[in-house]
Amino acid sequence: MRATLWYAMMLAIGVLAVAATLAFAVCCLSITITTPAHLGKSTFSSDPKDISCLCDTEGICTVTWSSENIGGGVTESWPSGNTGTSVTLRLTTLPNDNSHFGPTWVQATDGAVSDKNDFDLFFSEEATNNPGEVEVPNWYYYWSDTLADYGTHNYDSGLDSCGITYFDEGAWRSYIGTEANETPTAPLKYPCTHGIDCFAQVCRHEERHRQDFSSLWGAGTDRNNDDDPDVDWLPTDNGTVTENSLGTPYHEGGYNPNVEASVPDHWHYGPLWRDCEDYCMHRHAVWNNGDADSVDWANPGKQY
Ligand SMILES: [Zn+2]
Description:
By secondary structure, the chain is an alpha/beta fold. It has a domain at 2-124: Immunoglobulins (Immunoglobulin-like, Sandwich). It is 20% helix and 25% strand. It has helices at 2-26, 138-143, 196-217, 275-281; strands at 28-35, 40-44, 49-59, 64-67, 75-77, 86-92, 102-110, 113-124, 154-155, 163-168, 171-176, 298-299. The strands form 3 sheets. Strands 2, 4, 7, 8 and 12 form a 5-stranded mixed β-sheet that branches. Strands 1-3-6-5 form a 4-stranded antiparallel β-sheet. Helix 3 (196-217) crosses helix 4 (275-281). Bound molecules: zinc ion (ZN). The site of zinc ion has 6 residues, from loops.
C-alpha cells in the first residue's frame, strides 16, 4: 500500500514537472532588440528608407513591432508585415521641417514582454531628398528651419562660395552658396566655424550687406561707379551720409572714398577685402558657434 502511494506521488510530481516545462517553453521570456541599436543613429539617406528591425528572444515569442508616428509628413509602414524577429520598417517622404528629425523609437512586443530601442534620425547633408518645392541641398532646407537661419536669402547652386549679396531683378538680394555648409576659407574667415555655424555666420553677414546696400543705394537702385569711384560698394555721398562718416565708431575718420580698402584687413577676410566688408563685419548680427548643435541633424554634422 505504501509502495503504491509512493508510486502515485512520484507520478504526480513527474506530471507536474513535465507540465511546468511545457508551460515554460510556450511562454515568451524575453525580447531584446539588436537592430536598430539602442541610442544609435539612422540616416534618412534614401526615400523610401528601409530600416532593418531584428531581435533576439527567449522562450516562444510572437513578436509584434511598432514605431513612433514621426509626423511632419513621414509615413511609416512594414512592407513584409510587422510580426517576427526580423522585419523592415519603411519610412517614406522626408519630414517637412527640421524638428521631426532626432529622437525616435521602435518597440517589439509579445504580451507583457517587450523591448524598446531609442535612436536618432538624421538627413544626408548634401542630398536633395527633402520635400521642398525648389531643389536645394538638405542642409540648406533644414538649417533654414532652425535658429541658425537669419535674414532673407535664397540658395544658388551655381555659387561656389559661401554667399554673396548684389542687386538682382530690381532689389538687393542675398544668395547662399555651395560652400556655406563647409569650413570657410578666405573670404569670410570665422574662427573655428564649420557646418551649421558656417551657415549661421554667412546668413548674418549677407543680411547685413543686404540691409546696408538697400539703405545706402536705395532698395530699388543698383550701385554705380560715378557715386563709388573706388568701387568699395559704399557711396561717396548719397545725400544723407558720406563715406567719411561711415565706420567712424571703429575707424577714426571713417572710410576714404578714394581707396577701395582704406582700413587694414583686421578680420583676415582675404581676397576681395574692401571697405563695405569692414563696415559689414563690425555690425552684422552676432552668432555664437555651437548654439545650434543640438538641432543639427545633418549627417555629417555636429551630432553625427
Ligand atoms: Zn574694421
